């Protein structure tokens, strides 16, 4: 995610505080939406400006810009290396999709995801988080707290593999083996060193492309 984050604090009107609408006695009342479902619906319908995404974080709708242009190289390298190793029926992509985690009452739009293509059907505006086999987030100074704490906690209960590219420190960490208490295993390497990606991928990620060229080399070219 990008640096600037704007939280929309107002909660949508729920069925609990909305004026009761009269219905014919012959009609069957629909089950009222939960507070999370109301927030998720509002997040999905939010008309964000071009280049921005909306996520549901800590009970708030948060709008933030998509990744910076210079993150493109890292995201492309990740996607191309992951693609040959994804589980059957899954796809590695950086397209903006909202994934929901109802039991955690969260909904995120990861920078990169690997997910089951069968989940991308119907008219829903979000995808169930259970379809994910991997997510990756590229941090910035202002989003490290969310990526390292909030999302780590939620992904750690639902997603098999989580990659954090810590852009300020130029390190990449892989988390795996999710449980009710979060991930049980992790490994960190600096950009430039290979990183083993665990099952269901089972390959060494080459992070050499993540290292910026020294300024003198750029000038010489």
Description:
The protein is of the alpha+beta class and 221 residues long. 19% of the residues lie in helices and 29% in strands. It has four helices and 14 strands. A six-stranded mixed β-sheet has the order 4-7-9-10-11-12, sandwiched between helices. A three-stranded antiparallel β-sheet has the order 1-3-2, covered by helices on one side. It starts with 5 loop residues before the first strand and ends with a helix. The N terminus is likely disordered.
Order of helices and strands: EHEEHEEEEEEHEEEEEH
Overall spatial form: globular
Q: Overall mean pLDDT score?
A: 81
Quickly count the helices: 4
Largest sheet: 6 strands, mixed
Main sheet: strand order: 4-7-9-10-11-12
Report the span from N to C terminus: 31 Å
Residue windows where pLDDT falls under 50 for at least 5 positions:
1-19
Q: Quote the beta fraction.
A: 25-35%
Quantity of strands, as a count: 14
Q: What is the helix content? A: 10-25%
Structural class: alpha+beta
Radius of gyration of CA atoms, rounded to a whole number: 20 Å
In summary, what is this structure?
This protein has four helices and 14 strands.
Name its key features:
alpha+beta; disordered N terminus; about 30% strand
Blueprint of the fold:
Blueprint: E1 6-8, H1 35-45, E2 52-57, E3 60-65, H2 72-82, E4 90-93, E5 99-101, E6 106-108, E7 112-116, E8 127-128, E9 132-138, H3 144-158, E10 161-166, E11 171-176, E12 185-190, E13 195-197, E14 203-205, H4 215-220
Parallel strand pairs: 5-8, 9-10
Antiparallel strand pairs: 1-3, 2-3, 4-7, 5-6, 7-9, 10-11, 11-12, 13-14
């Amino acid at each position: 995610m990008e640096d600037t984050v704007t939280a929309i604090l107002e909660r949508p009107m729920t069925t609990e505080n909305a004026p009761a609408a009269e219905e014919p006695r012959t009609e069957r009342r629909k089950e009222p939406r939960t507070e999370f479902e109301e927030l998720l619906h509002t997040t999905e319908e939010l008309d964000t400006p071009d280049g921005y995404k909306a996520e549901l974080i800590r009970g708030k709708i948060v709008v933030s810009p998509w990744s910076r242009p210079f993150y493109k190289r890292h995201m492309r390298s990740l996607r191309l290396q992951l693609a040959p190793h994804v589980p059957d029926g899954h796809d590695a992509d950086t397209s903006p999709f909202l994934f929901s985690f109802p039991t955690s009452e969260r909904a995120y739009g990861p920078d990169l995801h690997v997910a089951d293509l069968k989940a991308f059907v119907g008219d829903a505006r979000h995808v169930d988080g259970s379809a994910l086999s991997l997510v990756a987030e590229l941090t910035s100074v202002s989003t490290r707290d969310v990526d390292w704490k909030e999302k780590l906690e939620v992904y750690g209960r639902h997603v098999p593999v989580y990659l954090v590219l810590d852009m300020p420190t130029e390190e990449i960490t892989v988390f795996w083996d999710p449980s009710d208490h979060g991930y049980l295993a992790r490994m960190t390497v600096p950009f430039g060193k290979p990183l083993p990606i665990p099952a269901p991928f089972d390959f060494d990620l080459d992070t050499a492309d993540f290292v910026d060229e020294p300024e003198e080399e750029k000038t010489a070219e």
